[in-house]
Amino acid sequence: MEQPAVVWDPALLGYDLGGEHPFNPVRLQLTIRLATELGVLEGVPLLVPEPASDTELLRIHAGEYLEAVKQAPMAGWDVGHGLGTSDNPVFSGMHDASALVVGSTLLGARKIAEGEARRAVNIAGGLHHAMRDHAAGFCVYNDCAVAISWLLDHGFERIAYIDTDVHHGDGVQAAFYDDPRVLTVSLHQHPFTLWPGTGYSSETGNGAADGTAVNIPLPPRTHDPGWLRAFHAVVPSLVEAFEPQLLVTQCGVDSHEEDPLADLSLSVDGHRTIYTALRELAERYAGGKWLAVGGGGYQLIRVVPRSWTHLLATVLDRDVKPETPIPPGWADMVRKAAPRAELPTEMSDGADTAYRPWGDGDDDPVDIAIRDTRRAVFPLHGLDPDDPRD
Length: 390
Known about the structure:
It is a single chain. By secondary structure, the protein is of the alpha/beta class. The chain has helices at about 25-35, 55, 65-75, 95-115, 145-150, 170-175, 225-240, 270-285, 305-315, 330-335, 365-375; strands at about 5, 45, 120, 160-165, 180-190, 215-220, 245-250, 290-295. It has a single domain (about 5-380), classed as Histone deacetylase domain (Arginase, Chain A), CATH 3.40.800.20. It is globular. It comes from Amycolatopsis acidiphila. Keywords: Acetoin catabolism.
């Protein structure tokens, strides 16, 4: 089997919103360093991306928006299009840095489309909130949507996109809300309690694409067992019915209980279990083809490096045991940069991820979310929303 493609270059650290902004690129640097010290990347060539061209960006974004992004560093703060806000401040080289993120996800997509790899991973990607004509939620260009659009023109007719970020994958849903070739699935904190305020189970797609937008809004403080219960009650059945040729996954880790920007309660162990489930889905229903990208995650030291090291390891079939100790070299590096930081000691939070399958009689808020989503979309795929076997 072809070796999975891993896209990484330090130039991706240039997507830096500056100052005290929570979207700090150090999380990427710490992840690559941790994965390297654990041997996850040993012998793996890291593919160096090039910026996406305007032609590729125009697949998803409006021409006037591209021009606004290019001009923003010179025009100052009042540029419109969601630029110059506290979420999306203007920064030097913004267009080039943002285009490089898109180019990195496109490189992974190309490796799969050209048959050079069945899997690819780009932890710097996952900017799923960017819209056609404006920036949103720390995202300038939507690498996920651009890559899916490109793949649809290069040999793929049915693509399943699964978003595990704590925030609704609204930009990708919007890009393909009318396109029956793309199944978008988002598991996120309930929109009544978290930005961007979208992602209700009633949002199911438009016209011929009705049923291809799937949303599972979860209540705050949902833990690993509840999250996994919801995932397995909804996602595998729909993916099987949709018959995708490729799985694209946004693997944000801001669902962790220590994340400062949201209120779900997952663990690093939950994240590792999610990645294993995504790998199994790709193998079972998408011919093994899997493009994984990063996303949100704002506990920069204790969470993101461990969770995304597990993501890299899962894509590479080099699974890291939870009890694996944190390498001393990585810990020493972090202590020098952040002496007061509380460091993890192993690649686990010691959490129990065991879950009970849906349909066993429970009636808690997670089960209500499951039922609402199944009833909204399952009949549109010929599935029985009330039958646990579906």
